Amino acid sequence: MFGRISRRQLVTWVAVALLACTGLYSIARFTPIFAVSSIDVVGGTTATRAAVSAALEGEKGRSLLAVSGGDLMSRLADVPDVLSIRFDRRFPSTLRVTVVPERPVLVLHAGKTAWLVSARARVLGQLLHPRRSSLPKAWVPAKTSVTVGSTLPLNAGGLAAQALAPVAGSGLNAHVRVVDATKENLDFRLSNGLEVRFGDTGDLRLKLAIAGRILRMIGMKSGDSYIDVSVPERPVVGGPNSQVAGGG
Questions:
Q1: Are 180 and 186 contacting, i.e. CB atoms less than 8 angstroms apart?
Q2: Which Pfam family, an example, fits this chain (predicted)?
Q3: Is residue 174 very low, low, confident or very high in pLDDT (cuts 50, 70, 90)?
Q4: What's the CA angle centered on 127, arms 124 and 133, to 5 degrees?
Q5: What is the C-alpha to C-alpha distance for residues 87 and 90, in angstroms, rounded to an integer?
């Protein structure tokens, strides 16, 4: 039979076990046994996966235990289509990276050039045939500097892109064709020609919900010319020949 173990002995044994585990982890972290030799990228487009694989090439040879999400995202900073990633260590030597891609919400026109822009106002790439896209459109001066991978300033398309982020749940989804955005005024032009006026972007989600509800009530074939939700408590529906056709 084992004799009684004192509390001091137990603490000593636990400390030794922890030190042993720490030592083994340190050895495993730097040993070539677990060095990354292959990177498996999933999610996004073929082009995005290729860009991610190329950007992460520098991780090869590094221990799987030393890989961190922060380091991976730093390497992917110049890949515009990546919103975020998840990664798994597949021992002994495979790093699996799952890409969560940026979602384009806007076609930005600058002179004769058009660009795809995400809801975070990040420029995803140039669009060669913008007329084929059903995404909402916005215009900035032709001399505006637009660079793939950059984030647009609010006054150069950024506000228009960000305003479209919550549209999916508003009832206006798939109907917005043109976005006109300034710091003071945000307007949407819908596919039926109806204009939705938001005033500034304060309480935007509430205003979108109200505009979507009104649109469902009057229908897309309505003869009205605008919905004004700049004052959410007093929305106004205007006809083509009147300044105020109704309110609620």
A1: yes
A2: POTRA_1
A3: confident
A4: 105
A5: 9
- Phi and psi torsions of 9, nearest 5°: -65, -40
84-to-5, 74, 192, 205 alpha-carbon distances in Å: 51, 11, 36, 24
Distance CA 5, CA 178 (A): 77
Same domain, 226 and 183: yes
Going by the DSSP 8-state scheme, the letter that residue 55 receives in this structure is: H
What tokens appear for 9 in the block? 């002995």
Q: Is the residue at 24 inside a domain?
A: no
Verify that 116 and 202 share a domain, yes or no.
yes
Residue 146 is given by DSSP the state: -
Asked whether residue 40 is domain-assigned, the answer is: yes
pLDDT in the model for residue 244: 41
Domain termination residue (choose one: 54, 70, 101): 101
CATH value at residue 205 = 3.40.50
Q: Is the pLDDT of residue 134 over 70?
A: yes
